[in-house]
């Protein structure tokens, strides 16, 4: 994926998040609730919670909302029945798609996803059908500006355990192994502001859509799936 298209994707997600903040914050609150249930409400001992707080801050979720979500989850730990599920499938022309959800009703969620995949020229597949085409990586994205020394940023990131720093015209992308993500993020977050900070599925190869109808259907599939309350993240290898 070119740097330009990734930056366009980041800006597109930010614009959608700004226009649908309530829904975005609700999804983040749900993710916080599940992680609090799994490991407790203290981010110092629950590193997954620490990571999702960083993800929430990168999405401009106010600290008050984050604190409220943690306290609410801690008070309702026995009542939370959400489970994390990963669905895999294909979009138009065989584009590989991974959808991460948190749901309290897997039949409803699977039905909704199957409906949209079928409607927009794709289909849900079996577990493992496309995940082998992706690598799980920790991703930290920092907007490029004149105050950042690229060499210094690279040295700091690599010294703390990052695998790579990708320099583009409008941003820097730091990649880590999943188990090194928290350490690298914590080492850099006091000095740099992240516009993305989370574990993601990164495609190994990409599929280019040429047919205009396939492009429209893929765009509609992404929008429809992202709009579902149960969906946390969607990844694909469409270039």
Would you give an account of this structure?
Helices cover 45% and strands 23% of the residues. The chain has three domains: 3-79, Integrase, N-terminal zinc-binding domain (Arc Repressor Mutant, subunit A, Orthogonal Bundle); 83-132 and 205-236, YebC, transcriptional regulation domain (Alpha-Beta Plaits), CATH 3.30.70; 134-203, YebC, transcriptional regulation domain (Alpha-Beta Plaits, 2-Layer Sandwich). It is globular, with a radius of gyration of 18 Å. The protein is built from eight helices and eight strands; from the N terminus they run H-H-H-H-E-E-H-E-E-H-E-E-H-E-H-E. With 239 residues, the chain is α+β, with helices and mostly antiparallel strands. The strands form two sheets. It has a four-stranded antiparallel sheet with strand order 3-1-2-8. The mean pLDDT is 91. Strand 5 and strand 6 form a beta hairpin.
List keywords for this structure.
Alpha-Beta Plaits, globular, 4-stranded antiparallel sheet, alpha+beta, 8 helices, Arc Repressor Mutant, subunit A, 239 residues, single chain, 45% helix, 8 strands, 3 domains
């Amino acid at each position: 994926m070119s740097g330009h298209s990734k930056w366009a994707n980041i800006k597109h997600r930010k614009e959608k998040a700004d226009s649908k903040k309530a829904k975005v914050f609700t999804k983040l609150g749900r993710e916080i609730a599940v992680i609090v249930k799994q490991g407790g409400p203290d981010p110092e001992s629950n590193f997954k919670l620490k990571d999702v707080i960083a993800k929430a801050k990168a999405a401009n979720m106010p600290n008050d909302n984050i604190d409220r979500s943690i306290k609410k989850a801690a008070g309702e730990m026995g009542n939370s029945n959400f489970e994390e599920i990963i669905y895999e499938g294909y979009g138009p022309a065989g584009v590989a798609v991974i959808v991460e959800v948190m749901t309290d009703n897997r039949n409803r969620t699977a039905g909704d996803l199957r409906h949209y995949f079928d409607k927009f020229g794709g289909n849900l597949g079996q577990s493992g059908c496309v995940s082998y085409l992706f690598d799980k990586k920790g991703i930290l994205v920092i907007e490029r500006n004149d105050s950042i020394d690229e060499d210094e940023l690279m040295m700091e990131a690599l010294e703390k355990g990052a695998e790579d720093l990708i320099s583009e015209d409008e941003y820097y992308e730091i990649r880590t192994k999943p188990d090194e993500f928290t350490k690298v993020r914590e080492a850099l977050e006091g000095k740099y502001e992240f516009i993305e900070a989370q574990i993601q599925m990164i495609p190994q190869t990409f599929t280019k859509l040429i047919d205009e109808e396939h492009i429209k259907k893929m765009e509609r599939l992404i929008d429809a799936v992202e709009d579902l309350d149960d969906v946390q993240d969607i990844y694909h290898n469409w270039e």
